[in-house]
Amino acid sequence: MKNSKRFLAIVLSLVVTLSCLYLAGCGGDSKKKQKNGAVVDGDDPYAGIEEYEGTTIKFATWIDHSKSEAARVFSSFEEKYGIKVELVSVNQKDYITKISGLIAADASPDIVVNNGTAPSVYSLLQPLSEVSTVNLNDDFWDKDVLEFNKINGNYYALNSKYSPQNYRSVVTYNKKLFEDNGFKSPGDFYEEGNWTIATMEECATRIARLGSDYVGLSARPAVLANIFGTSLIEFKDGKYVNNSSDEELQKAYKWAISCQEKGISTYKYMWWKFNQNLVGMEVYSDWMLRANGAYAQYGVDPDNVGYVPFPKVSADSEQLSLLADRSYGICKGAKNAEAAGYFLRYFLDYENYDEDEMFVSKDAAKAFKMLRDIDCKTIMSVEGECLTSYYGSQTDQTCYDVILGGGSSQFVVNLKKFSTEMDAVVNFCNEIIDDLE
After folding, report:
1. pTM for the predicted model, two decimal places
2. Model pLDDT for residues 395-430, shown as the tens digit of each residue
3. Please, is 213 exposed, middle or buried when counting C-beta atoms within 10 Å of its C-beta (0-12, 13-18, 19+)?
4. Which CATH architecture has domain 169-324+361-434?
């Protein structure tokens, strides 16, 4: 009898021990430690999502994602978790005004897009720390985007490092033009470690000299300044700052003016002309790599397009990369904020997309990852956002026409005149963030 009791005790002890080991390895307490409701350190970020099965998330956007590469993401999310995502169509031009109206009418969507509309967009958003399903410590999120959208100690918008819904700067070049004429291409210079503004200017000069119909380089003034690591307006120590007196900014603008006066560059978009093999290089975002991008829309042969990062200012300068501020947040008054937090994690995961649907070619897909994997310093510019918030529309080109339109002879005078206008812009934007609750 005693032996039977001893045997039973041993069996029960083993059962308890094995149960503890099972729980520790298969979802027990050690796996369930959470931060802001999401499992930490690579564990299941969707733990607890079943609670929201049968609910609907409202996503306010001007993009018809049902006809984009994200369509499969919406359908697979619903199929996998039983949560529907409803697109709320809002015109991009009136986005801030329309969403503000929905909030006032107690008809808030759950997800809001920031497409370069900070700081105005922050008035629509609640701090992400208030949404328990968003784990801000998850390495999945791009820390540069988070910090860029940090106001008064609160994070308002996010994106992922390899997000299919964000863009980095890229220099595209016409491989056919360079090869047919026996010129060294930007890709050649980049591979030999000599891709700088000097070799970019050399490439532009050679193409422009082919004839009056040729454009050596197409680049917006703001992006050319970003190559120098500067911009007209910057965000420093939690405030927007008029940066027009910055020496690097003035150096960048003077270089841009000199290239234009030499006839080797233009500030205008030249997508349509690239298709005619008349443009050497363009500096834009890697939207150009996408299946729905400008090159695809204009029928550019993807086999003719090469891709390289920003040139360095000099060979020993730091490699820079410009990241767009496309980010996402949770709307004030959202009715399904917690489920929306889960969906953002799913929607912004590169692994949930099909590369063949996203990019114009295999080379374009490789370039997308190269731009995110290179050793570089990421910069994000608030310039266009502040100008849009102040003027209410895309007026940045008009601003640059005022500053740069008079050429080198009038540059200093025009920049000084426009500096007063920039004071008004930054003051307006600082008032917006000061008023955030």
Report:
1. 0.86
2. 656 778 888 888 898 998 888 888 888 999 999 999
3. exposed
4. 3-Layer(aba) Sandwich (3.40)
